[in-house]
Amino acid sequence: MSTDSHPGPLRVLVFGAALRAESTNARLAALVARLIADTGASVDLATMREFDMPLYDGDMEDAEGLPSGALVLRDRLERCDAFVISSPEYNGSVPGVLKNAIDWVSRVRPQPFKTKHALLVSASPSLFGGNRGLWSLRIPLEHLGTRVYPDMFSLARSYDGFAEDGRLADPGLQRRLTETVQAFLSLVEADARYVCLQRRWYEFLGDRTGAGVTQRAED
Ligand code: FNR
């Protein structure tokens, strides 16, 4: 169990996985960030450009360690309880930019994807909304120990999908996205608070023998 469970508001990193300035996935990420902030959680909204890094190269890693963009992503993952990725689908799969970032950051120890909760969403002009890409994205994340939320959200016909105010043009889809985000946060909250409650219960019993006791709540 992660040792960074805390009694404050949940902290959620949100980012769109496309580099282009007009990215609809960046817009979807911004909308999800608003929905998360509405619940009182703390949001760290990032862009993929902030995680700029070269292609993974084992020789470069041996010589120089991780590139700065990978370290930025590592730091921001370490500071969150959960993360949300809004990713386009390229050729039925994960965009290379995103997979490359996951590969670099997976080299860090302790490995920062482990035990984090993740919600995956996508936007695409196609009729499937990029949903196949999200199924592919589950594989590296679940391999790394991320708790990927079972439900996902994919916005089809994304170029016409947003209203002027940044919400989804279709009220039914807006409602479904809101409910998905809220259900995801409830699960994250239950997990984070459970560890805090366990710790408080042991301490209430007066058993203050220190590390051994606290560890029982963190194993
Ligand atoms: C795509 N696109 C795409 N869309 C899709 O639904 N299924 C696919 O397999 C692909 N394949 C694909 C490959 C490549 C190389 C590109 C550049 C694009 C379209 C893609 O989903 C669309 O460009 C993104 O949804 C746009 O996302 P942003 O940039 O608006 O976030």
Could you walk me through the main structural features you see in this protein, from its secondary elements to its overall organization?
By secondary structure, the chain is of the alpha/beta class. Helices cover 45% and strands 13% of the residues. Strands 1, 2, 3, 4, 5 and 6 form a 6-stranded parallel sheet that branches. Strand 4, helix 5 and strand 5 (147-148) form a beta-alpha-beta unit. The longest helix has 34 residues, at 171-204. The chain starts with 10 loop residues before the first strand and ends with a helix. Bound molecules: ligand FNR. Ligand FNR binds next to helix 1. It comes from Streptantibioticus rubrisoli. This is NAD(P)H-dependent oxidoreductase. Residues 11-156 form the NADPH-dependent FMN reductase-like domain. InterPro entries: Flavoprotein-like_sf, FMN_Rdtase-like_dom, NAD(P)H-dep_reductase.
Describe the structure using short key phrases.
binds ligand FNR, six-stranded parallel sheet, 219 residues, alpha/beta, disordered C terminus
Helices and strands, in N-to-C order?
A: EHEHHEHEHEEHH
Q: Based on DSSP secondary structure assignment, what is the total number of beta strands? A: 6
* Percent of residues in helices: 40-55%
Uncertain regions spanning at least 5 consecutive residues? 213-219
Q: Rg, please? A: 18 Å
Structural class: alpha/beta
User: What molecules are bound to this protein?
Assistant: ligand FNR
- Shape annotation: globular
N→C terminal distance: 5 Å
DSSP strand (E) fraction? 5-15%
Helices, by number, come to 7
**Biggest sheet architecture:** 6 strands, parallel
Mean pLDDT: 91
Pfam family, one: FMN_red
Organism: Streptantibioticus rubrisoli
InterPro entries: Flavoprotein-like_sf, FMN_Rdtase-like_dom, NAD(P)H-dep_reductase
Protein name: NAD(P)H-dependent oxidoreductase
